[in-house]
Amino acid sequence: MKVVGTGGPNAATGSRAARGGASGFSLGPTSGAATPAAAASVAATSSMAGVSALMALQEVEGPLERRRRAVRRGGGLLDRLDELKMALLSGESGGPALERLARVLREERPDDSDAELTALLDQIDLRAQVELAKAEPRNSRG
Asked: Which terms are listed as keywords in the entry (predicted)?
């Protein structure tokens, strides 16, 4: 096998590009000094627009994300109620579990348009409030 030339596979594309004019694209008359400055200006503007768009998207919370947060909060309350149950069954006071339960209950509850989910979360919240109210007489006794 004989190797001819050093151009390799890109040599053919280079000769086609040298022909030019066939694509129909032209920048028109521009000054050479303005082109790099304009490109830098466009790059800076587009990167700032990209960052602004990302920040705006992070701030907007859609219905699916609100639902996800509501379900996560409800699951957290159920986990804290289980911790309290296990502490009380093992003979512990349940103080730390009650504090964690109260902390989760104080978190903002996202609104959800699903009536069934809202009713279920209302029941979980009520059960957590009942457990906290039942613990008040125990805490006041000492």
From this structure: Cell projection, Cilium, Flagellum
Distance CA 47, CA 53 (A): 10
Strands (E), 37-78: none
7 vs 2: CA distance, rounded Å: 14
Number of Cβ atoms within 10 Å of the Cβ of 110: 17
Cα atoms found within 13 Å of the Cα of residue 56, Cβ hemisphere only: 6
Instruction: Note the pLDDT tens digit of each residue in 89-119.
Output: 999 878 888 999 999 988 888 887 889 999 9
Long-range contacts of 3-6 (CB under 8 A, 24+ apart): none
The DSSP 8-state label assigned to residue 6 in this structure reads S
Going from the C-alpha of 2 to that of each of 14, 25, 57, the distances in angstroms are: 22, 39, 59
Q: Please check the confidence at residue 80 and state whether its pLDDT lies above 60.
A: yes
Which residues does 100 contact at the CB level (< 8 Å), separation at least 6? 80, 83
pLDDT, tens only, 4-26:
666 655 555 544 545 555 566 76
| Domain chopping of the chain, boundaries | 63-141
